[in-house]
Design goal:
The chain has 5 helices and no strands. It has about 130 residues and is mainly α. Pfam families: Tryp_alpha_amyl.
């Protein structure tokens, strides 16, 4: 009986440590914030091409977003960042000027296009 109780407690504890799909990626995550910071010089227009640091951070996020819900959340985070003027220090106040540069990251960093940073793009349509 003690062994069964121990197994139940261990399984419950282990399930609490597991990351549920769709909850693994949050806009407030340090990795998400750092990717915005690493890519800011390119998306702001200060650099002609994204740095290797930017591309590596972007690829890391893309690889982390494995499920449909995680990819949708990644899209929502990008939309949130562009709509709230995050990472815009020293640049135009209109975040729409950055959308084409953000949208070019997948191609420039060697990843397939997943979604547009344009707020008109419906993140819920991502598969």
């Amino acid at each position: 009986m003690a062994r069964i109780l121990f197994l139940v407690v261990a399984l419950v504890a282990a399930s609490d440590l597991m990351v549920q799909p769709g909850q693994a990626l949050k806009c407030s995550d340090l990795e998400v914030q750092q990717t915005g910071t690493d890519c800011n010089p390119y998306t702001r227009g200060d650099e002609a091409e994204p740095s290797s640091k930017c591309c590596n951070a972007y690829k890391s996020l893309r690889l982390r977003a494995k499920t449909r819900e995680e990819r949708r959340q990644f899209c929502f985070c990008v939309h949130e960042a562009t709509s709230q003027n995050r990472f815009l220090r020293g640049s135009a106040t209109n975040p729409a000027t950055r959308i084409p540069r953000i949208d070019s990251l997948p191609e420039k960093c060697g990843f397939p296009f997943l979604f547009s940073a344009d707020p008109k793009f419906d993140c819920n349509k991502i598969n």
